Amino acid sequence: MVATLQLNQVGVRYGKQEVLSGVTTPVLKGGEVTAVIGPNAAGKSSLFRRIAGLLDGPGDIRIDDAPLKASASSVCYMPQDTSVNTVLTVYESVLLARKQGTARKVTDEDLEEVDRVLFRLQIEAIAFKGLSELSGGQRQLVSLAQVLVRDPRILLLDEPTSALDLHRQVEVLALIRSLAREREICVVLAIHDLNQVLRVADRVMVIDAGTMVSCGAVDTVITPTLLQNIYKVEGRIERCSRLCPHVIIDGPLGRA
Ligand SMILES: Nc1ncnc2c1ncn2[C@@H]1O[C@H](COP(=O)(O)OP(=O)(O)OP(=O)(O)O)[C@@H](O)[C@H]1O
């Protein structure tokens, strides 16, 4: 069955401070990638934590047309901060993530799935390294392995490529996109690089100052007006010789 996610008037408060309010989306469908963009401190991570069930707040979150509480196990969330404090190896941590929340014994299928995910992320070579010995980029790839191995229906990725080199960014985003299609899972990812958004996303949600200011097809949302209004820069969207759209920034607003 194709996964679905829908938000209705969703908000987040920290104590008395409201940092997000009234986020309402159309039904986000499995097979699609939705990019969440917006300036620093706009509320993107808070939205992810709310959908992951880590924060309470107003509004209704429905997964596969059921309330979040009934289907929380379908959601896997990769936070922005992937720092670790553990003596586990990469392999152990990914296997533990696979078993998370269950008391059952490890099966051959679990081991095969761990191998498969490490292979797809091309991190088999570091499988038996300790997590504390990894570089920032390696740590981010392992965090990604830890969520992918759980076979999520709703995959929430908060800046999953921020520590990766360009080659890895392109590969990982292509992998995420093909996993969304293959497994019909609903992927929602926060990402700052608008050119990567143009490559990977089917839909874009823009969060600014705690509200959702638009949600729609990539080419209708990523426009010179968005660059001006949200990012305060002058820019254009142009197609390269292979007809792929690219964002070109001319400079800060008023000084281009
Ligand atoms: N645990 C917290 N307690 C209180 N306020 C918080 C907490 N976490 C975040 N905030 C505040 O909520 C607002 C939104 O933060 P959030 O991390 O959701 O933004 P973001 O859009 O993900 O930003 P960035 O792009 O910089 O990662 C900010 O003003 C931030 O200071």
Automatic annotation (TrEMBL):
Gene Ontology terms, MF aspect: ATP binding; ATP hydrolysis activity
Recorded hits in SMART domains, A to Z, give: AAA
> ABC transporter domain: which residues?
5-234
Q: What keywords would UniProt list here?
A: ATP-binding, Nucleotide-binding, Translocase, Transport
Q: Name one Pfam family in it.
A: ABC_tran
Q: Return the InterPro entries for the record.
A: AAA+_ATPase, ABC_transporter-like_ATP-bd, ABC_transporter-like_CS, P-loop_NTPase
* Record flagged with keyword ATP-binding: yes
Q: Which CDD domains match?
A: ABC_Iron-Siderophores_B12_Hemin
Return the PROSITE patterns for the record.
ABC_TRANSPORTER_1 (PS00211), ABC_TRANSPORTER_2 (PS50893)
- Family designation: Belongs to the ABC transporter superfamily.
What does this gene product do?
Part of the ABC transporter complex HmuTUV involved in hemin import. Responsible for energy coupling to the transport system.
This chain's protein is named ABC transporter ATP-binding protein
